[in-house]
Design a protein that fits this description.
Helix content is 53%, strand content 9%. It is built from 16 helices and 6 strands.
Length: 385
């Protein structure tokens, strides 16, 4: 079925010279659709298996297992005059950053673009193609082994199909966004993905991913932050998934109970005797180091879940966003995320409202100013929680 769906020629790129030649041609393109296939079930870093590119005329499948000079491709990525189109690209960014030491400039994510064009929020690629192009794509090779060589005919067709239809979707979405004056909105949100990616690479922030971290004191958070930083460093050094080093519940228990001895560490669920032998002394040293931090060096406590009164305010904010989203014909999630509401409320509660960073962009006039008025009015009225 996928073989019938691929209409354009497929070019296999497996040498440095071939890559350089095709990248020279792409320097004159205005838009490239790009996708990646990779493996990472047993590793910290994704292992690139394939890079797909479509220039509107042909499909190009680049073999990263054979090519060792990616400078021509990174030069394309860094060319601001070429729009790089990807779909739901967070994992692709990891491939580019860790595999080729670069991130694309002039980026458009079609998942974000689709929402701002009036389609559903967070649409998967197959569903987006169905909505925009009225074409049903098969999903048969999603979990293939992309490191095997040679790739099967089905894999090759699937890989080419992805970027061929991504290019076609992008052309339609760009037209729709331009018609509604929202192309810059989509470009701004896509660029923010790069900023968010870099923030997620900061090992010092990895403890913030723990959903129950708000229960911890500043001292306990310092322990958790120190242990999480150690886990990230260890996982990167060994190129293993984080949970292969130590799982989150074990880190949380050590921080909550302030485990300081090997004997107590042995009783923590999820900590094996082997882990105690190999890493126990270092872990206890890290806990001790966090316990010795002066008060001014401790991370601030994280906000508690919203109170009943704050949840009422939250609902008022959501109602306003729903109204605005309806007027714009976009999903509410494309305007404001849950953490945005909570940041507005929590910062205002502390006496200084700090809007989320991306509220400084197009959302400032579209939605942010209305939410800030509601929050200010709530606390100016002397509402107590």
């Amino acid at each position: 079925m996928s073989q019938d769906l691929v209409k354009q020629e497929i070019h296999w790129i497996e040498t440095n010279a071939q890559l350089e030649r095709v990248c020279d041609v792409w320097q004159d393109e205005k838009l490239l659709a790009i996708d990646t296939e990779f493996m990472r079930s047993q590793t910290y870093y994704p292992i690139p298996g394939l890079i797909q590119v479509n220039d509107g005329k042909s499909n190009y499948l680049i073999d990263p297992t054979k090519i060792d000079d990616f400078f021509p491709l990174t030069d394309i990525f860094e060319n601001d005059s070429i729009l790089k189109v990807l779909h739901s690209c967070s994992e692709d960014l990891e491939v580019f950053h860790h595999g080729f030491a670069c991130l694309p400039k002039s980026l458009l994510d079609t998942q974000l673009a689709a929402a701002l064009s009036g389609y559903a929020f967070s649409l998967g690629f197959a569903n987006l193609v169905r909505e925009v192009l009225d074409v049903d794509l098969p999903k048969g090779e999603t979990r293939s082994d992309w490191l095997q060589r040679p790739l099967s005919v089905a894999q090759v067709q699937y890989a080419a199909m992805d970027v061929e239809y991504l290019y076609a979707v992008a052309i339609k979405l760009i037209s729709q966004l331009t018609e509604h004056g929202r192309l810059e909105w989509a470009m701004e949100d896509s660029k923010a993905l790069i900023t968010h990616y870099y923030e997620n690479q900061n090992c010092d922030n990895s403890y913030l991913r723990f959903k129950s971290a708000w229960k911890l004191s500043s001292r306990q958070l310092a322990v958790l932050q120190t242990l999480c930083r150690w886990r990230e460093d260890k996982a990167q050094d060994k190129n293993l998934p984080r949970n292969r080093i130590i799982k989150e519940p074990a880190l949380m228990t050590i921080a909550q109970r302030n485990i300081t001895t090997l004997d107590k560490l042995r009783h923590v669920e999820g900590v094996s005797e082997r882990m105690v032998r190999e890493n126990g002394v270092q872990l206890m040293q890290l806990v001790a180091k966090a316990n010795d931090l002066p008060a001014e060096k401790l991370p601030p406590k994280l906000p508690k879940p919203l109170s009943a009164a704050e949840r009422e305010l939250l609902q008022s904010l959501k109602d306003k966003v729903s109204q605005i989203a309806g007027q714009l014909n976009v999903p509410v999630e494309s305007l404001v995320k849950k953490k945005d509401y909570e940041q507005l409320i929590n910062s205002a509660k502390q006496g200084q409202m700090i809007p989320p960073v991306h509220f400084d962009g197009w959302r400032k006039d579209v939605v942010a100013s209305e939410l800030e008025k509601l929050v200010t009015a709530h606390y100016s009225a002397g509402t107590t929680d």
